[in-house]
Amino acid sequence: MNTNDMKGTMHINRNLINFGIPLVLLGSLILLMKSSFLNGNDSLNLAITVDLLLIIPLVYFLLIRKSAIPNTTVIPVMIVGLLVGTYFLPQESQIYLSIFKTWALPIIEISILIFVITKVRRAIKEYKKLKGSTPDFYSALKSTCYEILPKKLVLPFATEVAVFYYGFINWKKREINENEFTYHKDSGAPALFGVFIMIIGIETVALHFLLARWSIVAAWILTILSVYTAIQVFGFAKSLSKRPISINKDSLTLKYGILNEVEIPFSDIQKIELSSKSLEKQEFTKTLSPLGELESHNVIIHLKRENELVGLYGMKKKFNVLGLHIDKPVEFKEKVENTLL
């Protein structure tokens, strides 16, 4: 067995211990909660509640504190314990769980929010120092989340936060630097997003009254989901003006709001073509805009090798030809080509 295989095996075994022991403890408590020993035993109810909310999270923390797993994952373990207790403990035995929900849980939620905000502000300051320019909130947020969340949760969480940030918090006009280019002013994309929101609104009202004849609950669930979707679309549309395309020292950073982005090294660029012709429908021919053919392009970038477009919630697409819209395409092409020389 080679060194890499041994390291992989050790990593798997370590994760089995990190997650296996808390799961075994939870399983043991579930069996105990389903037994007759619990009936009317107030001391045992308290002990089980303490085990679910404190002891198991503490054991988990001791197991992962020297590993690459973020310490903040202790909170989800505590929430799992709370859910297990709520489901398996008899209603009359949940007095201590109710106290935790009423007093401790709100404090934990507020603490997490303050912690995330503090980390994001610090990341933005560091990002500004490193880049020497206006910091990008979404990039700083992702950087912060990689430090405090499991890797697979970073992009979904960051996307949801960014939607509300760009949609409802950041209303200040973004100043465009000399090396940056907008892509939303002449493309018609904001109008398309506006149409999507209007369609969602009309269909939501119609379907709400239709479903209400069958089930009020189903009608309101659909309405809430539709409103949330409209909020997301609004956040996506607002993010277009906040995240311009930029020409860096050694690379080209292409962004389409928080929906798509890629950083292309100059060494990978074969040529930049000013064209609005239809793109050939090939596997590695993509558009920067997820709207595809609904939004026109006026620049086509041809690459020497494949690059990866990172989309919503971390979805990835490989490409070697990319179509995109730039509000000042001629100036963009000249600046990139001058940088390539």
In terms of topology, how is this protein built?
Elements: H1 3-33, H2 42-64, H3 74-88, H4 95-131, H5 137-148, H6 151-169, E1 180-181, H7 189-212, H8 216-239, E2 245-247, E3 251-256, E4 260-265, E5 269-274, E6 285-287, E7 299-311, E8 316-324, H9 329-340
Parallel strand pairs: 6-8
Antiparallel strand pairs: 1-2, 2-3, 3-4, 4-7, 5-7, 7-8
Task: Give a description of the structure.
The chain has 341 residues and is α+β, with helices and mostly antiparallel strands. The chain folds into three domains: 3-93, no CATH class; 111-169; 246-340, no CATH class. It has helices at 3-33, 42-64, 74-88, 95-131, 137-148, 151-169, 189-212, 216-239, 329-340, and strands at 180-181, 245-247, 251-256, 260-265, 269-274, 285-287, 299-311, 316-324. Strands 1, 2, 3, 4, 5, 6, 7 and 8 form an eight-stranded mixed β-sheet that branches. Strand 2 (245-247) and strand 3 (251-256) form a beta hairpin. Helix 7 (189-212) packs antiparallel against helix 8 (216-239). The model has no long low-confidence stretch (mean pLDDT 85).
